[in-house]
Amino acid sequence: MDQIAGIINLDHEQDLLDELTYFRCGAAVPFAGRYRMIDFTISNMTNSRIESVAVFARRKYRSLMDHLEQGKAWDLDRKRGGLFILPPDWNDPTDISRGDLQHFHNNIDFLRRTLADYILVSGSQHICNINFQDVLKEHKDVNADVTVIYKKVDELYPEHQMAHKLDVDEEGRVTSINNDHGNKNVYMDMYLIKKDYLYELVEECIAHGCSHFFLDGIKAKIPDLHVHAYEYEGVHALVNSVESYYRASTKLLDVEKRDELFRDEAPVLTKVKNEAPAKYAASSNVNNTLVANGCIIEGHVEDSILFRGVKVGEGAVIKNSIIMQRCEIESNAVLENVILDKDCSISESRTLIGAPEKPFVLPKRKTM
User: Fold this and answer.
1) Pair (228, 302) in one structural domain
2) Which of 3, 119, 140, 268 lies most in the core, judged by the most C-beta atoms within 10 Å?
3) What is the pLDDT of residues 210-252, one digit of tens each?
């Protein structure tokens, strides 16, 4: 059976989540109560029997390394294959590569040592639950050079404006990759390519002074390549702004969407933290809320997401908000349409109210 190795390429992902990416890259942003954004990409890979995963990281990756550790949570702490975090630590004076081609060029040993025949390259901003073995099967069936993955969205949101779109013919072949704001075929920053062909394209791009492998090595060569489009039809969210993060998070309060993303046969895995179950006081009132373990709730919470270890004082009211790890909301405080990053404290009787289309965001370790 053909094998796949995974590369999570964070090089061109911009940290556009404002306060949430002051101290971390977007891939390390907490999501859905107990996960990080990158957990969905790695879980998709390991659930697809990908046993070697490399992470190309260039900036603000300390939090990411702390979360991923040796890959134990995803069964990637192994002797053969495993998880490789590859920050920009190279000192080859003859290297002329630029952009993410530096990662491909300077970490070519990862590709050479893997036994995989194919390479699956993905970003971290597209939240989904996909089986890459299905992508491989379709890739081989149509004898494609490259298979790119896309989602045909029902409705276009502001976050889709920055995403690339695909024009696809009746045979599933990509005829154009563009930024047409009216095109609903959203490219998910995922593509599958044969390892030997990846070598060839990387060397060609470097020789021509290119800096972006996908744009210069694949998009620019669409007339000469057989680029196949694989349509992903499951639940999907693109997170590349605070507004899209808030929208994607609150959609998880819908049981059907949540069950479609968190499937028993393809679980989303994350770093394990052993904490006591959430505690609800007699004075608490909690409705339509995701509550992680370790929380202590004495107040009123509705239509919100509470991460691990959040404390909500008696008389406090939280609505339509996202409260991250170890935040403390003291008694009689009021929060509505608010995102609190980790370790924030809201003083007694304090009121913070944002708008549904523009939530109020408080950075890590702030007190108000």
Assistant:
1) no
2) 119
3) 999 999 999 999 999 999 999 999 999 999 999 999 999 999 9
The CATH number for 318's domain is: 2.160.10.10
Per-residue pLDDT tens digits for 178-198: 999 999 999 999 999 999 999
Strands 334-336 and 317-319: parallel
Q: Indicate which CATH number applies to the domain containing 193.
A: 3.90.550.10
Q: 173 with 320, same domain? A: no
List pLDDT tens digits, range 92-148: 777 788 899 999 988 888 888 898 999 999 999 999 999 999 999 999 999 999 999
Residue 119 tokens, joined: 């390479």
With beta carbons less than 8 A apart as the criterion, state whether 316 and 333 touch. Answer: yes
Cα-Cα end-to-end distance for the chain: 57
Is the full-model pTM beyond 0.85? yes
Contact by Cβ (8 Å): 83, 53: yes
Q: Are residues 112 and 198 in the same domain?
A: yes
> DSSP code of 278?
P
Q: Could you list the residue range(s) of the whole structural domain that residue 349 is in? A: 279-362
Reported as half-sphere exposure (CB side, CA atoms, 13 A), residue 82 has a value of: 12
The answer to whether 175 touches 96, Cβ cutoff 8 Å, is no
Domain boundary among 261, 293, 321: 261
Integer-rounded Cα Rg, in Å, for the chain is 22
Which residues on adjacent β-strands are paired with residue 178? 165
In the chain, what percentage of residues exceed pLDDT 90?
A: 89
Residue 244 and residue 292 in one domain: no
In a domain, 268, yes or no: no
Helices (H), 107-263: 108-113, 132-141, 195-207, 242-251, 255-261
Q: Is 21 inside a domain boundary?
A: yes
Asked if residue 272 belongs to a domain, the reply is no
Whose CA is closest to 64, among 18, 25, 17, 9? 25
